[in-house]
Specification:
Helix 5 packs across helix 13 and helix 8 packs antiparallel against helix 9. By secondary structure, this protein is of the alpha/beta class. Strand 12, helix 6 and strand 13 form a beta-alpha-beta unit. The strands form four sheets. Strands 2-1-3-4-11-10-9-6-7 form a nine-stranded mixed beta sheet, with helices on both faces. It folds into three domains: 179 residues, Class I glutamine amidotransferase (GATase) domain (Rossmann fold, 3-Layer(aba) Sandwich), CATH 3.40.50.880; 186 residues, HUPs (Rossmann fold), CATH 3.40.50; 96 residues, GMP Synthetase, Chain A, domain 3. The structure holds xanthosine-5'-monophosphate (XMP). The site of xanthosine-5'-monophosphate has 12 residues, from loops.
Length: 507
């Protein structure tokens, strides 16, 4: 990539990475930087200052090197916190808010065709989430739009400096994409983002970073590690691919993973550790303890196999994982420990012995990369699968009996989603066992068997999710087939919980 990416400066809003994503969706390369990294952005075509949870009025509030920013001579867009900060920097003021204004509002465009609003309606829905507001506007500031209450929600200060008091990156801001597009197009010499040429950049990056070292790569059959293995293969890197069968995988998954890699001419070593995992999980019911046990054992088994003197460990860490681990206060990083960030791996990382070439990409971009690398649709379109596997879909103690039920039901569910053409319409779908036995009737006899939950969600990034509105006839088919064919289940429930408050997985 010769041109520097469009810089999005992260002031900590939960939506910040969406700005990066939206800009990439427009076809331009964009990356997130911390406020202190402004000088490291090079020569970006435009700069966006994101929103954030803090107040610009607080002591120690995140700041920006304004002189340097002005000196860059490129268009700048401040979003919420970014707008308030810019207003202060230009000599205006910010008033503290008593409560957070959160939700939909209406934007009234007063810009008379100012180019940041070109092609947009006179009124449109916007999504707001802020408490402070700009108060005194510096002389010469133009108000480009207001909300219903007449409060300025879009400003223009000096040439090229804009601020908006709403989130254009959120889909509830109905014309948000148009605004971002207008803004980005004010930059000159924009960096194109196109996955086929990005692949060449990644192949080169891998070769440079590997630099003759031997690589080990843990593969799981999931999209990320498969794309990673295919990328290493494309870069002709000497790699040992290790697949740890935890026994917590879906039905036939281990065999399928091996045959996929073989068909690609990529050698793979399988370690069957299912007994070890099941034994370690015996009697354990606490969700976090189960996760910790699995994470620790996985790392132990993996490093037993590869030895401690790994020259370079390749991981399929994605951009959101990196951002989430880096952003303090990130919800995702505090809710669940990410298995790519355990101590042993962090230690290798600090020694420069971890290769994470997918760390600039979002999930859908990884899928596109997989397609460019020639991976079959079945692999690249695969739903995400959690590191701790079926254990997080088996609340309470994990036993082989329960795992078999989950595997059998899951296979029926997923096969039927494919058959009904619904698989690609959902982000993720799976069966989870509810550790409660309920009364039913089978073959004229009373039975006392487990209840099973099936869950299908739509989502953009797994940070939030909606339950998928699958047609009743599809749900009916799934339920009938599970009840007829899976021993040990006499009740099927469809999970209609959104995230938040529910998470996607049960544990
Ligand atoms: P939750 O349950 O937190 O899941 O809403 C969000 C997404 O992350 C996946 N997930 C994991 N992925 N290691 C992973 O690689 C994990 O420990 C893990 N836990 C959850 C989950 O399947 C969903 O896509």
């Amino acid at each position: 990539m010769e041109k520097d990416p469009i810089a999005v400066i992260d002031f900590g809003s939960q939506y910040t990475q969406l700005i990066v994503r939206r800009i990439r969706e427009l076809g331009y390369y964009s990356k997130l930087y911390q406020p202190g990294e402004l000088r490291e952005t090079g020569k970006p075509a435009v700069v966006v200052l994101s929103g954030g949870p803090r107040s610009t009025l607080e002591d120690g509030a995140p700041d920006i090197d304004f002189d340097y920013l002005k000196g860059m001579g490129v268009p700048v867009l401040g979003v919420c916190y970014g707008m308030q900060l810019l207003n202060q920097k230009f000599g205006g003021s910010v008033a503290p808010g008593n409560k957070r204004e959160f939700g939909r509002a209406t934007l009234k465009n007063e810009s008379s065709g100012n180019c940041i609003f070109s092609g947009m309606s006179e009124t449109s829905q916007i999504w707001m989430s802020h408490s402070d507001t700009v108060e005194n506007l510096p002389e010469g500031t133009k108000v480009l739009a207001r909300n219903d209450d007449g409060v300025p929600v879009a400003l223009k200060w000096a040439e090229g400096f804009y601020g908006i008091q709403f989130h254009p990156e959120v889909s509830h801001s109905t014309e948000g994409n148009q605004l971002l597009k207008n803004f980005v197009n004010m930059g000159s010499d924009l960096p194109d983002f196109e996955i086929a040429s990005f692949k060449d950049h990644l192949v080169q990056r891998v070769r440079d970073e590997v630099n003759g070292r031997k690589v080990v790569c843990g593969v799981s059959g999931g999209v990320d590690s498969s794309v990673l293995a295919a990328l290493l293969h494309e870069a002709e890197v000497d790699t040992r691919n290790i697949f740890v069968d935890t026994g917590l995988l879906r039905k036939n998954e281990a065999e399928e993973v091996v045959s996929l890699f073989e068909s690609f001419g990529i050698p793979i070593e399988t370690i069957d550790a299912s007994e070890k995992f099941l034994t370690a999980l015996k009697g354990k019911t606490d969700p976090e303890e189960k996760r910790r046990i699995i994470g620790r054992l996985f790392v132990e088994i993996f490093f037993d196999a590869v030895g401690d003197d790994v020259e370079l460990l390749a991981q399929g860490t994605l951009y959101p994982d990196v951002i989430e681990s880096a952003t303090s206060g990130s919800i995702a990083s505090t809710i669940k420990t990410h298995h790519n960030r355990v101590d042993k791996i962090m230690e290798l990382k600090s020694e420069g012995r971890v290769l994470e070439p997918l760390d600039e990409l979002f999930k859908d971009e990884v899928r596109a990369l997989g397609r460019v690398l020639g991976l079959p649709a079945k692999v690249v379109n695969r739903h995400p699968f959690p590191g701790p596997g079926l254990a997080v879909r088996c609340p309470g103690e994990v036993t082989e009996e329960k795992l078999k039920i989950i595997r059998d039901a899951d296979k029926i569910f997923i096969d039927l989603l494919h058959e009904h053409g619904q698989y690609d319409n959902v982000w993720q779908a799976y069966a989870a066992l509810i550790p409660v036995k309920t009364v039913g009737v089978k073959g004229d006899e009373r039975c006392y068997e487990f209840a099973l939950s099936i869950r299908a969600v739509t989502s953009e990034d797994a940070m939030t999710a909606e339950w998928a509105q699958l047609p009743y006839e599809v749900l009916g088919d799934i339920s009938n087939k599970i009840l007829n064919e899976v021993d040990g289940v006499n009740r099927v429930l469809y999970d209609i919980s959104t995230k938040p408050p529910a998470s996607i997985e049960w544990e």
